[in-house]
Amino acid sequence: MRIEIWSDVVCPWCYIGKRRLERALGEFEHADEVEVSWRSFQLNPDTPPGPAVPTLDYLTRKYGPQAEEMTARVAELAKAEGLDFGSSSLAVNTLEAHRVLHLAADLGFGAAASERLLRAHFTEGANLSDHETLARLAAEAGPAGQAGTIEARARAVLAGREYENAVLDDITLARRMGISGVPFFVIDRKYGISGAQSPETFLHALRTAYADETSAAS
Q1: Quick one: which of 29, 118, 128, 196 has the fewest CB in 10 Å?
Q2: Which domains does the chain have, with CATH numbers?
Q3: Confidence bin at 87 (pLDDT 50/70/90)
Q4: DSSP β-bridge partners for residue 91
């Protein structure tokens, strides 16, 4: 069974949804047969590359005074999932971060890199458009003993345009599949789950998909 997750590293619901899916997989009887892969999506692709601004300032400009209340409410929901959403996160263009995630996936630690970048953004207030920061985070997420090699490889990728087409291909595929927001979870290219649903909803979907696949194979 394959789960593809369209996500953005600055999307709070993506981090919450990730934790809820993980809880569901912890109860799923066939979790050892599940392969999870991450696909790129940009919530705000028009954000200028380079500059980073406080997320609350960005949201206030976009939504008005209610942005602070919205942010606090999401932080409380995140806390219930064991996540610490700090107040220092930065709004950035995420293309460079997604390129690093594609590199990590090719090197075999895509899931660990996704987790590391999400934590860096929401808990540590890291600038996920800064090349040195991204290279360091990739090295921290990679296998033990390979930090120097991974950091150098990430720097080389970020110095050019490698993996840019892979990011854009993910976004194009999302549009073709009718995905307009994230997180969005696709099981075996047959079953779609939109949003950070409850662990119970994820678990029901996993069991249903598995039963359907088993039935079709018999």
Answers
A1: 29
A2: 2-217 (3.40.30.10)
A3: confident
A4: 53
